[in-house]
């Protein structure tokens, strides 16, 4: 019997956008079933969020995703929100500390409205409420 990991913890490894591209490519072809992915504090920007979003759209097993303290910004948040609309497996996601401003907030809100499977979303240090005046 072959055991495969279900949890992958890469928090604080500074893998960046190129690293997350390689990681998502590897996970997409991985025969195991990753249920918990911690990619927090890894210098992932909106560019890297594209790769994460593509993986989210295809994943049939991912339940918990931590993207805390990266630099997704509004554009990255939009990409993740779009992916969450297509994924009805993820129950918990952490987008805190990603410098999400007025751009990205409406898309995240709509994704939460459309996707009733998500039961927990962390967003501490995420939203800059003073930016809502820009909307």
What is the molecular shape?
globular
Q: What Rg do the Cα atoms give?
A: 14 Å
Kindly report the average pLDDT value. Answer: 87
CATH level 4 superfamily? Ribonuclease Inhibitor
Structural class: alpha/beta
Element-level helix/strand string: EHEHEHEHE
**Which regions have little confidence, pLDDT < 50, spanning 5+ residues?**
125-135
What's the helix count?
Answer: 4
Q: Strand percentage, roughly?
A: 5-15%
What top-tier CATH class fits best? Alpha Beta
The name of the CATH architecture is: Alpha-Beta Horseshoe
Q: SSE layout and pairings?
A:
Layout: E1 7-9, H1 16-29, E2 36-38, H2 46-58, E3 64-66, H3 73-86, E4 92-94, H4 105-114, E5 120-122
Parallel strand pairs: 1-2, 2-3, 3-4, 4-5
Helix pairs in contact: 1-2, 2-3, 3-4
What does this structure look like?
With 135 residues, this protein is an alpha/beta fold. It has a single domain (7-134), classed as Alpha-Beta Horseshoe (Leucine-rich repeat, LRR (right-handed beta-alpha superhelix)). 38% of the residues lie in helices and 11% in strands. The protein has helices spanning 16-29, 46-58, 73-86, 105-114, and strands spanning 7-9, 36-38, 64-66, 92-94, 120-122. It has a 5-stranded parallel sheet, with no helix packed on it. Strand 4 (92-94), helix 4 (105-114) and strand 5 form a beta-alpha-beta unit. Helix 1 packs parallel to helix 2 (46-58). The longest helix is centred in the N-terminal third of the chain and has 14 residues, at 16-29. It starts with 6 loop residues before the first strand and ends in a 13-residue tail after the last strand.
